[in-house]
């Protein structure tokens, strides 16, 4: 089958794109585009506060972006009232070691853990994501 398009990125809604980009940069080791020298707010080329920040994936592959939304409400997982809509998985060789590092940068371990080979966490603004034993 011939491709119609090439996957470029996934964007997460959030209240502060710069802060969430720093969190996921710490998770992945990827660089942040337009990181300010002394923290938020990021500004675009016209000096306006940026409502979009993204990570620079090594080798130019697919990446993660962060989009500011007004009145952000965190997803609640599991559940349907404020559904997660999507989540990200990260492969790791050691769940315990990766968990310790994640908790140190602001992730929270979700109280509901439905599996043995993966663990569910919440990022600083409540998006669920998983560490998966590789």
TrEMBL record:
The lineage of its organism: Bacteria, Bacillati, Actinomycetota, Actinomycetes, Pseudonocardiales. Pfam families: Glyoxalase_6. InterPro entries: Glyoxalase_6 (IPR041581), VOC_core (IPR037523). It comes from Pseudonocardia oceani. This is VOC family protein. PROSITE patterns: VOC. Residues 6-134 form the VOC domain.
């Amino acid at each position: 089958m011939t491709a119609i398009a090439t996957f470029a990125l996934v964007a997460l809604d959030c209240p502060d794109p710069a802060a969430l980009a720093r969190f996921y940069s710490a998770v992945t080791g990827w660089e942040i585009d337009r990181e300010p020298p002394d923290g938020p707010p990021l500004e675009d080329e016209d000096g306006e506060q940026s409502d979009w920040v993204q990570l620079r994936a090594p080798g130019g592959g697919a990446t993660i972006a962060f989009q500011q939304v007004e009145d952000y409400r965190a997803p609640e997982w599991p559940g349907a009232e404020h559904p997660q809509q999507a989540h990200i998985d990260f492969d790791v060789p050691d769940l315990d070691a990766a968990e310790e590092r994640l908790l140190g940068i602001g992730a929270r371990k979700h109280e509901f853990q439905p599996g043995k080979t993966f663990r569910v966490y919440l990022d600083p603004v409540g998006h669920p994501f998983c560490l998966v034993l590789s």
